[in-house]
Amino acid sequence: MRIQQFFLAAIVISSFCASAAEDPKYPLNQIAEVLLKDADVVYRKDQSTFTIYAKNRATEHVHKVVTILNSNGKHHAYEIVGYDKLSKVTSFKGYVYDATGKLINKLKTSDIYDQSAFDGFSLYSDNRFKRADLSQGVYPYTVEFEYELDYKFLFFIPNFYVAAAEKTSVQYANYTLIFPDELRPRYKTFNVNDAPTESTTKEGMKSLAWTFKNISSIRYEPYSDPSDIIPRIMAAPTQFDFDGYAGSMESWNSFGKWIHSLNKERDVLPEATIAKVKELTANAKTKEEKIQILYEFMQNRTRYVSIQLGIGGFQPFEASVVDKMGYGDCKALSNYMVAMLKQVGINANYTLISAGEFPRTMQVDFPSSQFNHAIVAVPNGADTIWLECTSQTNPFGYQGKFTGDRKALMITNEGAAVVNTLRYSVDQNVQSRHAVVEVDAVGNAKAHVKTIYQGLQYENNRLSHVLHEQHDKQKDWLEENIEIPTFNLNAFTISNRKAKIPAAEVNIDLTLNRYASVSGKRLFLVPNLMNRWTHIPEKLESRQTDIVWHHSFIDVDTVEFKVPEGIYPENLPSAVKLKTRFGEYESKYEMSAGRLVYTRKLTMYKGKYPASSYQEFADFLKGVSKADNLKVPFLTKT
């Protein structure tokens, strides 16, 4: 009897488990229609919990469930979890469900790839990552990832973003910070309306939690900054310990003292090198000349490699190691440069910065680890000379789009100071072009074009890198970037003018078959040879975000057209003048000594403009495009 009862109970339990296993999870029909509209993916759940246990111990638990609606969202089916010697992935699970919520695959240990995070230029790195792919061939489907990391340090707390991409809806998201009261983290929110819910856990820890529900997908508006609308939470510790180095982020000054302590006594150079730098600068007449000599000396004898080993992610190699090996990362090379300058009596400052053409704005009121790069600042009277030490080709004192025009943290003996890097004026960022074009009676043409790229325009389409390439690579670059529909590149020269405001000169000879179109006795040509504005801002019913224009510049074009005798312009377009807060434009046409001379000047001003001015902005660029594409008709006398 008891055996029968046992088997009966087993059958009941088995049936229940089978039933439970078949219960659908995250079926598509549980998503509100409004969240599906204009979405590629819907985050059913996006949870992140960061728990602080001590100044050198924390954990991060992530649980995300994403319904992928079409192939545009396929990348959400991949998950990558990074770690190193100071962090460990303690669990990693994954599941995939079909549209009805039926489980169709479960991540196995053999499906998780563990590999070095080698990036091609890291010489020393203990960074690794685990990755998994749950992508499916039939849409829609839902992936679920859950993992946890254990950190043996407390230096940064991951930011949390809600719907951090276009066409992403969110059903539910939660960000929670758990901590002992004496290690309460600081936080700053962006585009978040509600304050966090504060509570106490059963273990007596404090908790701050933010919850978000039913956020519809968005599409980024043209010429906008997504950070203006994406909900984001920054968090950071005040007291921390990184690989045995204790510090404080209570202020930028205290953070600077910690960085300074990492660099302390790592600026010692070999006696032979000290003698060499003094010899090199012995005849220099000015401080700036000394700096340039040593900067170019460093460029010629070192190269950049990435170093990512524990505290090595923040502490530079000793200057003597860089001197011996001839390589280093941004920290080591900057420290090396500071050490050399010190030997000739020049004070220089190691400086932390967020590098990249479109960096995230430094939050000056929130001391924390916001940097990914190191450079050198050399006070020079009322000015500062900025040195990018990872480039073997960068012109002396030039910052450009990589580190220019932003705030940085300059490390001093006393701590740190927030400083502004170099901003180039609109008059310094000039592209100046002069072309002579000979057009024959059937519309074919030959052209010689000289273009000078100055200031930030020195970097146009990677030109500053192409300057140092071989002839064939330069030719490839020209053929890709000459903005004429059909041409043959017959010859070219490229020269580099290294200076604080650098310039590159490009001369090209072109054959332009059928550049002008012929109809009966008329020949039509577009005077704007190769600098036509083509991008017209799309029409928006209601602009929501501010307009962002990242760089100021001036383009000046002068094009002379020689035409055969007996051909003359039927009429010339009127001059065009446009003046707005965003920029200015002028073009005009003149006949001089039997030549048509076309001149054009476009000026654009860096700035952030209110959403309400979008139509004015669009109208301005439409006007520029219309003027740029005007055709001039010529008639033959016969």
TrEMBL record:
Which residues are in the Transglutaminase-like domain?
Answer: 277-351
Q: Boundaries of each DUF3857 domain copy?
A: 56-217
Q: Which Pfam families does the annotation name?
A: DUF3857, Transglut_core
Q: Taxonomic lineage of this organism?
A: Bacteria, Pseudomonadati, Bacteroidota, Cytophagia, Cytophagales
Record keywords, A-Z = Signal
Organism of derivation: Pseudochryseolinea flava
UniProt-recorded name of the protein: DUF3857 domain-containing protein
Q: Identify the stretch annotated as signal peptide in this record.
A: 1-20
Superkingdom as given in the UniProt entry: Bacteria
